[in-house]
Write a structure and sequence with these properties.
Helix 2 links the parallel strand 1 and strand 2. The longest helix is centred in the middle third of the chain and has 14 residues. By secondary structure, this protein is of the alpha/beta class. The strands form two sheets. The protein has a six-stranded parallel beta sheet, sandwiched between helices.
């Protein structure tokens, strides 16, 4: 058992651009499944003995037994080299402390937190959360939409949650956009012709969202593209955006 613990710690120490999942309840487990599905490395942090024993039964999971409000625990999780932290504990106050600690240790970290109470949403935002998710609220909205827009809901879930490789919605940054495309319109990028994918949305300079953008909209390196296509099509587009070919 000591050998397993050392092996676990050595693998965590080598992690880079990984995700730290704090709390391994229903939300944490679902987040882990989704990350694993997309090949994203992650480490779980939880202080509960019964949860740790459950995680221990799965040799593919990296974990730390500890309290994520403590800096030394997040240090052990390699927070300075992580790309994101997901706080999923059922206690909003714990999540606030986790977010505060994580944000102070890695200012560039993407921090996603769960919230149970509406008033906790602003507290978590002030603490430094990038996004706050309220599972109960989302669940209620989804149930209501299934009444009057069932096919729309199922269509969007198929795109976002399906496990096949038929189609995916990807976010592509323009920060490495080839010089020949800078200051040019979306139509001049010839996305459909080059790759077969489709641009369905745009985030302008990290601030404003545009859905179904006009082909004449001008692109800059501060923009993000939301692209729909299969993995091969999206990979072709990524290459074309950087090389200009």
């Amino acid at each position: 058992q000591l050998g397993e613990i050392i092996y676990n710690e050595l693998k965590i120490a080598k992690l880079k651009n990984h995700v730290i999942i704090v709390g391994y309840g229903r939300n944490g487990e679902q987040a882990a499944l989704e990350l694993a599905e997309h090949g994203v490395e992650f480490v779980i942090v939880d202080r509960r003995d019964n949860v740790i024993s459950r995680i221990h039964d799965n040799p593919d999971l990296l974990y730390i037994r500890g309290d994520a409000t403590h800096e030394d625990v997040l240090e052990q999780a390699n927070i300075h080299r992580a790309q994101a932290l997901i706080a999923t504990t059922p206690n909003d106050a714990d999540n606030v402390f986790v977010v505060l600690t994580a944000r102070s240790m890695n200012p560039g970290l993407t921090v996603i937190s769960r919230a149970s109470e509406l008033e906790s949403q602003m507290k978590l935002k002030r603490a430094g959360a990038t996004n706050v998710i309220m599972p109960e609220r989302i669940g209620g909205q989804r149930m209501a939409k299934l009444v009057h827009q069932p096919d729309v809901v199922e269509f969007l879930e198929y795109i976002l949650l399906q496990k096949t490789q038929d189609v995916s919605l990807e976010e592509l940054s323009c920060k490495n956009l080839a010089q020949c495309f800078v200051g040019k319109s979306i139509s001049e990028l010839r996305v459909r012709e080059i790759s077969g994918a489709n641009i369905i949305g745009l985030k302008i300079s990290g601030a404003r969202y545009v859905f179904n953008p006009d082909p004449q909209m001008i692109l800059s390196r501060n923009d993000q593209l939301f692209v729909l296509g299969n993995p091969v099509q999206i990979e072709k587009l990524k290459v074309a955006m950087v090389t200009g070919e």
